[in-house]
Amino acid sequence: DPAGEFPAALTALNDMMDSPLPNYPPRIRTFSRVYAFEKRTISGSLTRSSTGNEIAIRTDRGEYVGGDVVYGAVYLRIKEPKDECKCLKLIIRGSEICDFDYKYLDNKPQPDEEFLLKCSKRIGKKDILKQEDIIISYPHGFPEGHFKYPFMYKLPHNLQGSCSLEHMEGDKSHEGEVRYTVSAALEGEQAPKVSTLNLIQSTASDTSSQVLSQLAVEALACAAMSQLPSIPYLKVEQTIVVYHNLECKNPFMIKPDIRTKQRVVRGFFCISRGTVKMSAQLDRCAFDPNEKVKLRISIQNESSVDLTGFSVKLLRVIKLSGKDRNRSEKDATPTMLYNSIPDDPHIHEGCPKLSDREDIEEELDLGAFPDFISPSTSGNVVKCSYSLDVDFYFSWAPTVSISQPLLIRPKPNNEWKDWKPPTWVRECLEVTAMHQFTVPPELISSENFSGIPGFQPQL
């Protein structure tokens, strides 16, 4: 449904294509084709070509964290100049989106009928980051040649981590993604926006209602056309991975806290049987999805009750926020999903009464659960968090639990790693212009651009 992206007036005009309109703008008549072009998926490609003309994009790294500066370059090869290609635009964008099934009670029209339990779908979407600017423009079209346009942009602090939610096997009831991209587009000139009211008022001098109605529709069509986004002649997109925080980027930077609990063990009639002190600590804060989590556990049992054993399991909590557009929801309670692995955890050896067990090492292999592990993130629409829970079991006494939070890092940016520069990149002429992403000359010759093809630091 194009109404989500384009003006409602344009949707109404699109429905009136069968009725003849005088001097109807041809671009509106072909709106269906235009919209289909805009919705084409171009993700995963760092180089695009069309009739001999090519565009490519490259950043200095594939992974970042909030507060980092993204350095990069857009490469352009023009073999066949096109009059419609008048500007080069750079877009840096981050967004989160989710959809999930939910159930609600709905009653039939008759008051005496029972309530019905229905299923529907909620959708959530939010822009985290959207910055764009025209790098350079040529009123008469781009000249023939090879060009490179350096750019830089500082990411905002406290960005949500990149994430793509995985499902337990057979569970397709929810999906979610937090994604960041850097893209460049070769476009035509953007038409200035026209006020529909001004266009209609300018035709109001004609007192004929029929003519005025036709002119008003024409004015509405022109205004809608002026708000259509420019159609890119060439567009290229690169995905960048953003870590949840600094600890996720460098797992060994900060040593995790030791989680400790001291509990008075009580038996029948709440009679104290002594105290037990338990502690758990991870070797680092963040882990890759296929790593083994190592946990160090210590037990000091000063009670007269045996600690019969303990178990270790990973708890995942997913929070999804969205609305059901079919029901015109204004506020909806977020959906919480709780899962733990393994389902039936192994019971490890405990600690007898009046004894100690120090430095017990336990492992949990995350690679054994590929459909369960998704990166940690804390967005407004998609949240995913993990904790390692240790349950201690006593004979004739309640269970005691210790929860140790941990982070799951996103997978490496293989799209960035596998990219190979086109052969013509080394022939590009550097072009600089003033825009939002302009790079100072001293930085272009620095090490920040040493890993970007066509740029070498001064020795």
Shape from CA axes? Answer: elongated
Report the C-alpha radius of gyration, rounded: 30 Å
Question: How many extended strands?
Answer: 22
The ordered string of helix (H) and strand (E) elements is HHHEEEEEEEEEHHEHEEEEEEEEEEEHEH
Secondary-structure-derived class: mainly beta
Pick out the low-confidence regions: 1-45, 191-209, 223-228
Average pLDDT over all residues: 78
Portion of residues in helices? Answer: 10-25%
Q: What is the tally of helical segments?
A: 8
Alpha-carbon distance between the two ends: 55 Å
The description of the largest β-sheet is: 7 strands, mixed
In percent, how much strand structure appears in the residues?
35-45%
